[in-house]
Amino acid sequence: MARIALVTGATSGIGRATAVALAKAGYHIIATGRRTERLQELQQQITEVPVHTLTFDVRDREAVQQAISGLPAGWKGIDVLVNNAGNAHGLAPVQSGTLDDWDAMLDINVKGLLYVTHAVLPLMLQRKQGHIINIGSIAGKEVYANGNVYCASKFAVDALSKGMRIDLVQEGIKVSEVNPGLVETEFSEVRFKGDKERAAGVYQGYEPLRAEDIADLITFMVTRPAHVNIAEVMILPAAQASATVLNKQL
Fold first, then answer.
1. What is the pLDDT of residues 11-34, one digit of tens each?
2. Vertex 24, ends 209 and 29: CA angle to 5°?
3. Which of 77, 107, 127, 233 is exposed most, by the fewest CB atoms within 10 A?
4. Would the pLDDT of 193 be above 90?
5. Are 209 and 235 in contact (CB under 8 A)?
6. Among all residues, which ones are annotated catalytic?
7. CATH number of residue 24's parent domain
8. Element (H, E) at 161
């Protein structure tokens, strides 16, 4: 029987790389995201296995539930859920942060993760098997200046991952968390409202992680033997020692 992996935020960055890597590992892919054209491009890129796409915003609770419950019968046996969809908006002290930015981060990073998990879990529970991978961040372990609400959202992902692991251990469902440091994706461009020059500066002077590095790690985690759960991993570029200590050669 085919193994199935559902990856949220599969239109770019870590999500897209993970969908590609898991397909190469033999997983049939359910790719979700907000941008239909990018999902179609991904579907055309992956030729090894079948790909099913779902276009929805993880912030929309009804859309999430409708999309997952409406999966064709052959796609309901989800073995792996990668809760990757997430974002950062702005980099400002709390006294000058914007409510819209705060809502976006909490709605996507926390509530979106919960909505998708809640919709997928019944499909795992009925088979007493499954593996949930939550994409956290070093920002969920260490707070840094001007990171306030983004850090809070990733601290929530950390707590949810631990809580899910406790709640689901009796159900035969593994829960893991991946906490990346600096990864060169569209992340900083979104954070800086499309300022490409400022975003590019984040990754200059050292070699950051690539999305494919995180995808390789996720593939390793989900392909371990059934009795093994790699519960939590921090993955950093070699030049990074903590959320705030970085060896830049400028």
1. 999 999 999 999 999 999 999 999
2. 95
3. 127
4. no
5. yes
6. 150
7. 3.40.50.720
8. helix 148-168
